[in-house]
Amino acid sequence: MKKFLPLSICVSLLAMNGYAQEDTTTIELNNLNITENRMQTPFSESARSIYVVSRQQLEQAPVQSLNEVLSYVPGVDIRQRGPAGVQADVSIRGGTFEQTLILINGIKMSDPQTGHHLMNLPLDIDNIERIEVLKGPGARIYGQNAFSGAINIITKVPAEPMAVISGYGGAFETFGGNVSVALPGESYGQYVAVSHDQSEGYRENADYKITNAFYQSYLQLEEGKVNFMGGYTQRAFGAQNFYTTAYEEYEEVNTLFLSADYELKKNNWTLQPRIYWRRNHDNFILVRSDPDFFNNLHTTHVGGAEVHSTYRSKLGLSGIGLEYRYEDINSTNLGERNRNTAGIFAEHRFYLFDRLDLTPGLYLNWYSDYGWNLFPGLDASYEINTKLKAFANIGRSFRIPTYTDLYYQGPDNIGNDQLEPEDAITYEGGFKYFSGDFWGQLSYFKRDASNLIDWVRSNDTQPWQPQNFYNVDIQGIEAGVNFDFSKNQTAWVKRVSINYTFLDAELLDTEGVESRYALDNLNHQLIFEVTHKIIGPVNHSLRMRYLDRATLSDYTLLDSRIFYKSEQFNIFAEATNITNTEYQEINNVPMPGRWFRAGVTFKLGLGKN
């Protein structure tokens, strides 16, 4: 493997002047607007570390779930308990799985029960337009719980009327399919998709069934636009060693969410009010063959309303927002509880001397359990020349304990109702370079956290219990180069990217205790990607990941996909973990070995708009 990677890179770079067909699905990152809740910023002008996964990359990657897509994003650590989107914890830059915020079109998907439900999303990869990953504190933009970063999944009604049918199959009696219909129009459009995936599992008690349904529509009015979105996911899976090592665990999770918003753009003003609701039901069985031995039922409801607006003047761009959120849980283990939160956002972007951008902002938050908190932040960038930009940012972040942190009672885990919220200040500085088909970034970041919440124990005979720590320091470096030649008809290689992340984490005041999550961060992450033409419309995508965690053995994974794409249908064949590497992303949960899959997608046009 160590010899293969340098050889692959050299071959790819030397072949850039070869032949390839044009790919019209490429997006121009320089001109892409990052979809924040208030002010939209062009990708090339952002003073934050942001990584965008385009629709083209989603189609080319050897993956079958959103979890697997995110595993290729630099600085993001996906710790899967099961493949194909069964369950995963998401970490950004060494944060815990509770410190990442997931959004769909700006709607928060966090669950007050536990961050383990963060990826219970009613989405198939085919429903996603792009993914925007914001690394660093996001409280000023999205509110609390965007502690170490945020992932915003962007969907939309396709521009052309069509029906799509896809299916695939593979090892371990795995198969799945997707059916979707898009009916766009000038004044009204809608899109509906249903998918199902299942497998007998790659090991004992690792079977799963996942069904997703997603709907999106818009109504164009004389002034403004109404958007509606809804989705439902049902997941049932064997959960061997997910939380314990002595029991045959099983879990069923159902998640439903709905949202509606109104977009108004008039003169220099934009206004976007919206409402949303999310319900999650979790049925956890400790012994699958004996459900009555220990069974937890949790149902959470989250409802919210937000208003976001911007105003452009000679002084720059101003943004302001209001939000209210209600969280409720009814649980056989955690009890019946609820809490409220409200917040005010404000920020302003200054354009100074034609080269300097400054965006100060703040978020003032009230929690019924913890009172008032203020989250200030500042982004700054300086254009050294037309291709090179220096950037820096600083921000405060905050996370309140989940109901599991506070109140859980089980044979191996006990909550702590005396927990205080986590708090951190994060600093970052670096350089971005954009030149035609090439862009790169080098940055250094540091996060000083206090009152970090982690599940700990003094020895292996005691149950795990969450505690607050006084100080946690995490610092790191990210470096990446990305080439995209897909629009160049004379280039054989379509895309090459190399990204490296280094993290150094230190927990202070924790002598004599064992940490469950906080020290399970990545030390080193190297991601290499190349996509190239084989012959005609047949292409090949190769992905390599090297990961070195603080508490687990390091490993290298190699994944590959060969695919054919035309206007009417696509065909793919892929293999993941080609080298059959034995590895774990979470302790005591072995991940799959070599896995082959193949599938086909048919597209049927339904006439012009």
What does this structure look like?
The chain has a single domain, classed as Beta Barrel (Maltoporin, Chain A). The chain is globular, with a radius of gyration of 23 Å. By secondary structure, it is mostly beta strands. The protein contains five helices and 36 strands. Helices cover 5% and strands 58% of the residues. The strands form six sheets. The protein has a 22-stranded antiparallel barrel. A five-stranded mixed β-sheet has the order 3-8-9-6-7. It has a three-stranded antiparallel β-sheet with strand order 26-25-29, with no helix packed on it. Strand 18 (316-331) and strand 19 form a beta hairpin.
Compute the number of helices: 5
Portion in beta strands: over 45%
- Whole-number radius of gyration? 23 Å
Q: If classified by CATH, what would the architecture be?
A: Beta Barrel
Low-confidence stretches: 1-26
Given helix and strand content, the structural type is mainly beta
- Please tell me what the overall shape is: globular
Average pLDDT figure: 88
- Amino-to-carboxy terminus distance: 50 Å
CATH class: Mainly Beta
- DSSP helix fraction: under 10%
Largest sheet: 22 strands, antiparallel, barrel
Number of domains: 1
State the CATH superfamily name. Answer: TonB-dependent receptor, beta-barrel domain
Enter the CATH topology name: Maltoporin, Chain A
**Strand runs, count:** 36
